[in-house]
Amino acid sequence: MHWWSTPSIRVRLTGWYTVVLFLMMVVYATATFVAVRHEFLEQLDDQLHDDFETAEGFLAPAPDGRIAWSGDRHHDPDNDEARGSDVWSAGGEPIYRSSASVALPAVAIAAATTTPRYESVVTNGSRWRTLTGTSLVGGRAVVLRVSRSEDRLRTQLWEILVVLVLGLPLVVALAGIGGYVLARRALTPIDHLASEARRITADRLHERLSVSNQHDEIGRLAAVINDTFARLESSFDQLRRFTADASHELRTPLSVIRGIGEIGLHETRTPAEYKEAMGSMLEEVDRLTTLVDTLLRLSYGDAGTVRLSRESVDLGQLARDVVSSLGILAEERNQRLRIEQAANISVTADRLVLREAITNVVDNAIKYSPRGSSIEVRIHADRDRAILAVADQGPGIAAEHRERIFDRFFRLDEARSRDAGGTGLGLAIARWAVEANGGSISVKEGTNGGSIFEIVLPARTGTIVEHQEHATQRMGGDA
Amino acid sequence: MRVLVVEDERKLAQILASALQAEHYDVVVAATGEDGFFRANAEVFDLVVLDLMLPGRSGLEILQTLRQWHIETPVLILTARDGVDDRVLGLDLGADDYLVKPFALPELLARIRALLRRGRPSDVLRLKAADLELDLVTRRATRGDALLDLTAREFELLEYLLRHQGHLVSREMLAREVWKEPRRATPLDNVIDVQMTRLRRKVDNEGGARLIHTVRGVGFVLREGEP
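Predict the joint structure of the above. Result:
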């Protein structure tokens, strides 16, 4: 690409400006020239008219009956090489011919009228303007012609034309340069922004563009770019944290596997010990596999490549399904796992994905609630929203952790949750699953300690059937 | 029973071969797509285990050509990709079953047994192991003379273990076949473990030899004597 095929905005702006200015100047100069020329010619005609009257005054009948020319010295047009006067008798006899106008052709007497007539005449390469008319002198008609050379006028017009033609490009060139300078000055902040933005790379995302005036166009542009940088920085941070956490989580089972292998090979052991070691390794492999699978699913979710089905799902049925599946875990811990359903509600969702979300939240409640406590799954409607809340009597979650609890690999208690067999991704999956189905998930403090996880989904219209009284259903194991 | 394994990764091919040999299959390993195609075409096998990602000739191509030539040997495909499209394509092209890498060997063996059994009458009404008996019609389970009081899920679990008697059963297989869950998840693993503990308490605590064994890191096996 050459610079002329994709000129900069500055050059294009100046180019357009110059072209438009040039055209305007041409129109202006032409109009001026035409007007001036018209004015000059009119003045010339006025002068001729005056000359005519003056010349009439010089004509007087002589005593011999002939008409004589008596031009006085001061007003004698004859003194001027640029003007002349000629007088003919009605018969065509020349009465007077000034030296300047002798070269002009004689007037056709027959054509002369009482109304003076203006004419332009060319003789020997010079233009003359003439005024011809008849006049009565002492009762006799004479033909009088006054003339002025147009040469001076032409010279003046030529000079004006030269000034205009030479001055116009000069003016346009000066204006173009001025325009270019202005455009450059106006666009310099953009170049500045560009070079500043170029400086901000992945490693320096915390930097921002400097904004001199927030309210002008450049300032708004910079603010928009800064906003983009801020979002970029936050997703980079998230990604960085996630990568660090993920590699940590992946390294743990890897180092365990390695350790078991190294210790196992260090000395000769009994077959039972080898079996034990290999089993232990396989357990870690299993954990790794689950972790990688889950991470993959989350990344498919991030990329938006997961295709969800949209079917009508009875929320109460889904909750009973989950509770019957996980009930055995609660039973083991002597926990009461109950469903309290205030209304029959259906939502539009991918059944399996939504079920996974509820499973993870309920499983989380079972895992972190003390033995012998109760866990309640409450389903109710709030206008057109379906709400599934899981309330436990666990230790609760401090306010500052409530937002982060759904982050990937976020753990309140490292050791305990790992012993419970968690990957640290259960609630992250739950959040993804709920949000992918158009809902939201949050956690709040329960009325008497513990936490309440709330899954809110848009209800299918017309599916909310409020129960007359709150039916409480007790769920046991999955017998 | 002759099994052809088409797998380019040397280590994995070796593992597959020794696992199949341990189950008394006659195993032939082909390390490239061309070799696999040539052998599947020229020799007679009871089953082909086919990796989809092969250098030279892709597994899908081999499968397609085999089916075009009306070679109807059962084919089990192995795919590293967890993409649904790939699996569907494989099944559409005539594969009989698929497994996603990394897979558990017990699962592979179970799938192979199922494929080889296919077409033969397998409708049994009673399953037995030692003095444990399951009547599938009346859905009664007895150990010796004692009637076992099992829940529906426990009965299904025991039935599955008995059907795979002597073979390892992974949690993944149980999740899919007994719990009918399409995806394995940590909560479900815990459920399976608890359920298994309860079942074992009922089956093995009535006296007699221990039948249900846990194989650490792999899964469970129902067999007489040591696992």
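Chain A has three domains: 11-156, 217-303, 310-476.
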